[in-house]
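Person: Please work through this fold.
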Amino acid sequence: MKHILLIGSLLLSSLTHQVFAEEQCGKVTIADMNWSSASLIANVDRFILEHGYGCEAELIPGDTMPTSTSMAEKGEPDIAPEIWSNSVKELIEQAVSDKRLIIAGKSLSDGGEEGFWVPQYMVDKDPSLKTIAGVIANVKAFKHPEDPDRGAFYGCPAGWGCQLSAENLFRALKLSDAGFDLIDPGSGAGLAGSIARAYEREKPWFGYYWAPTAVLGKYQMVKVDFGSGVDAEHFRDCTSQAECAEPKITMYPAALVQTVTTSEFANRSASVFEYLGKRSFTNAQMNSLLAWMEDNQADGTIAAEHFLINNQDIWLEWVPADVAAKVNSAIAEL
């Protein structure tokens, strides 16, 4: 009887050890991309994986193309928290098809956002300005800084990928015929500065911008409705291309922003993969966080701690209760 009990005890111990071992996250590498929202998410993941799931989490520098390529070809890093998939669409799709990569979920639940915008205070005074027809009808309000007889449209800086789409939509909407001139702001800082200056004086402003960004976290802007809906195929094949002879009016399609992992990692860390599938931010949430980062000159590490301390209502939805308790214990020691 003792012999039987001893064998049973050994079997139970072995089974328990096996299950425990299977639940261990082990070492995990996370791409820390070189822009603020991605770095914030990477640091949130590192903290939760380390303190909530017992992972040995390490951040490594990353960028969209090299990280995606390395994950597909070398299986490293394990996690890319924020991949703008449209820019590496074929690579990601092929790697997923080959079962080398797996899409965990959406980093930004409503996707990356682009559009033509006007300040909220203008729409509050004249609701028609939330439509392109209303903007065109009030072209004289958007005075050009150097030519009072023309309206000003602030485009995407020269050399940026968005320059093509903004200029093609400027043509499609016949904004030049309506009295607008397209202004090159010279840089991202120049474009952001033009919005800030307008807001400080509550002056009219009309132009291109994108989210998530600190600018749209600080300044309440309204995306102008073209009344066209979204033609994603035309946008891909013409609007976003240099050789687009006859661009049509279309709103910007949302950019797919996803969390991607290697298949090997997903298979060995099912509970963490489940967390990554739930971990997602809205643009409004991320805009606000980015604005806080800029105002406080905070890096991804500090911003992640700020988020975890002050936004428990958001991240508690991502993890089970036992993991949440461990994360909260770690937060209390910060």
